[in-house]
Amino acid sequence: MIKDYDADKRLREAYDFCIVGAGPAGITLALRLAGAGWSVALLEGGGREYTPRSQALYKCTSTGLEVFAAEDRLRYLGGTSNHWAGRCRPFTSADFAVPPPVEMPGWPIPYAEIERYLPGAMEIVDLPQGAEFKAVNPGLNGGEFEADRFLLSPPTRFAQKYATALDETPGLDVFINCNCVDLLFDPDAGKLKAVQVSDYEGKRQPVAARNFILATGAIENARQLLNSKSLAQAGVVTPDGLVGRCFMEHLNIDMGTFILRSGEGTDPRQYFTTDAFVAQYQAGRGNVLASVLADVQTYGRTAEVKHFLENLACDMGVASKIEFVAKFSCPGDGVISTLIEQFPNVHSRISLLDEQDELGVAKVNVNWVLSDSDRHTIKCIGSELAKQFAEMGLGFVKLNDFVYDTSLPLKMSPHAHHMGTTRMAASAKDGVVDTNCKVFGTENLYVAGSSVFATGGASNPTMPLLQFALRLADHLNQKMHSATGAAA
Ligand SMILES: Cc1cc2nc3c(=O)[nH]c(=O)nc-3n(C[C@H](O)[C@H](O)[C@H](O)COP(=O)(O)OP(=O)(O)OC[C@H]3O[C@@H](n4cnc5c(N)ncnc54)[C@H](O)[C@@H]3O)c2cc1C
Description:
Elements lengths: L1 E3 L10 E6 L3 H12 L4 E4 L8 H5 L4 E2 L6 H4 L14 E2 L4 H5 L14 H4 L2 H7 L9 E2 L9 E3 L1 E4 L5 H4 L1 H6 L3 E5 L2 E8 L4 E8 L5 E11 L3 H10 L1 H5 L17 E3 L2 E5 L8 E5 L1 H7 L4 E7 L10 H9 L7 H8 L6 E8 L8 E8 L5 E6 L4 H20 L3 E5 L1 H4 L7 E3 L30 E3 L14 H23 L4
Parallel strand pairs: 1-9, 2-3, 2-12, 3-9, 4-19, 12-22
Antiparallel strand pairs: 5-8, 6-8, 7-15, 10-11, 11-12, 13-21, 14-17, 14-20, 15-16, 16-17, 18-19
Helix pairs in contact: 1-16, 6-16, 12-13
This protein binds flavin-adenine dinucleotide.
């Protein structure tokens, strides 16, 4: 049942599972675990709708590249799925088999571990069962780029789609306006004993459970771990550890422009780097979208559009792109945008600030930085694309100078795909969670969402993070059956 914590603070004495955060990851886990017969508390800091007061708790500072993390994430029931775009592309086996060419290791599990959860994740985001991830155009001849393959979710809005299930699943208590403000660790037991929750007046109480799952998105998952004094005192979270480090995004680079050879169709083209490209250049993966701007002209009916774009004040990182688009006046000109892999890098990180939010939780700074390896990936993708466009006679690509001159600052924007801050690894030396998404050094604290990604590839993160959530639900179900002796 969905209860407003402002009005109803009655908790069970202890739950089997306490899940913090009701976005795609948290909702998926809550419904699976309650559906298996366990008692579950799903704690959501926001209400049923957007409120400035809840959203303000996401305010953070930025010392690196701008991520717009205060605006692009949404802090209410359903989380950021309330405005995600629904683009779905699965990881591939190569994402898991080939470690990144940097000092951090890649995935400690084979792709098969999550591949079997693909049909379940597709169903959750309303993709037809058995549907193929289709190419919309042919690849390029050189062997470096194949056609991209993806599917579009409607997009699924989790709070709406699962409203009845959240309200009616037996054993499930969903509390909205219920903010996690601390994680209370018992060092003798090696277990989290409760999460401390607060209403908006600052009244706190503990929620006790046998197992806990953080599902608050990649920045907040790290923030909650870093904010907990008891986890720090027990040495589970240490200042030089990996919690908050290896923050990754997908890179949307202003690669440049192109002019199509006349006679080429003007439909957008989407390409994806091949495994051969990755091996040959020791580079990351990337999706490239080449779109022809046939309609953006300074005259006629579209003049209004151009005027609108020029004047649009946008705080989500696309202002420079809009300015760039607005400069176009020639039908047939095209823009190239990307979704490029960033490699894990310990300097790209979330860290705590001294300042606290309204509820007494330390605020965070996001220092999103790229490494030389990332600049190498961008350069290789840009140069190869330009070469192959010319060789195939498709048209001419004019790359921006910062693509090939890596000493110049990049023009780019983020995709709001936050990943890596509680990365999965075989040991605590290289990560924060183990292969079952359990925080190293604890017996009962788990993490869900793309913060567990060891590498981010160039696939959109939501459907894959649901595959991980389904796998985690299976693991926890088995763990509880073993612990209680209940028949599976
Ligand atoms: C504009 C935009 C477009 C996108 N398009 C795509 C796309 O096309 N394809 C794709 O794969 N991905 C896309 N994404 C990314 C996608 O939205 C995220 O991957 C996804 O929402 C992450 O799910 P999550 O459950 O891990 O986190 P979230 O959706 O962020 O949910 C976290 C939840 O935790 C709650 N919470 C936070 N702190 C607390 C606390 N202290 N106490 C209690 N509750 C708390 C929040 O209110 C929220 O409900 C897009 C993102 C944006 C911003």
